[in-house]
Amino acid sequence: xxxxxxxxxxxxxxxxxxxxxxxxxxxxxxxxxxxxxxxxxxxxxxxxxxxxxxxxxxxxxxxxxxxxxxxxxxxxxxxxxxxxxxxxxxxxxxxxxxxxxxxxxxxxxxxxxxxxxxxxxxxxxxxxxxxxxxxxxxxxxxxxxxxxxxxxxxxxxxxxxxxxxxxxxxxxxxxxxxxxxxxxxxxxxxxxxxxxxxxxxxxxxxxxxxx
Length: 211
Fold this sequence. Notes:
Helix content is about 80%, strand content about 0%. The protein is mainly α. The termini are far apart. The relative contact order is 0.12.
């Protein structure tokens, strides 16, 4: 009986060790998927930045009344989408470099807004820790939407409130003329457009058989 108990305990310990090893491997694989930068990520960085710059340039004339150089930006969904699907580095590059290109095409560089747009994609990309970059369910899409909203608030908050020092705005002016007019429309547009892009992406992946 004692030998049977020892054998049973040994098997239980081996099972637990095996299960722990599998979890460690899965965590390493997830970290590599989220933070790794390879050819695939570089390709999507370039594609995302080009798309964001192009859409931003095309919609620059849609200025919001009463706002300080803030336009209606349906393109805001692009860094959010590239972040939630391809990870935070891709989202960061898409938002920051895409905005830099748009600035170069339309006027002076605003480094804090470029970085703020990068933060939008970066924060959105952290959703992969929960979704693993898969959005085949309503739950996954809702998580992407929620973390995308957090990204927009963080990124535009950074951009608007650093203008207190960069552009000598008062905190009230930064809030009323930049943060609120930029953030509310961007959140609404992201809520509408992100599910559409995710569903379209899922359909494309299903056709090609790639994950």
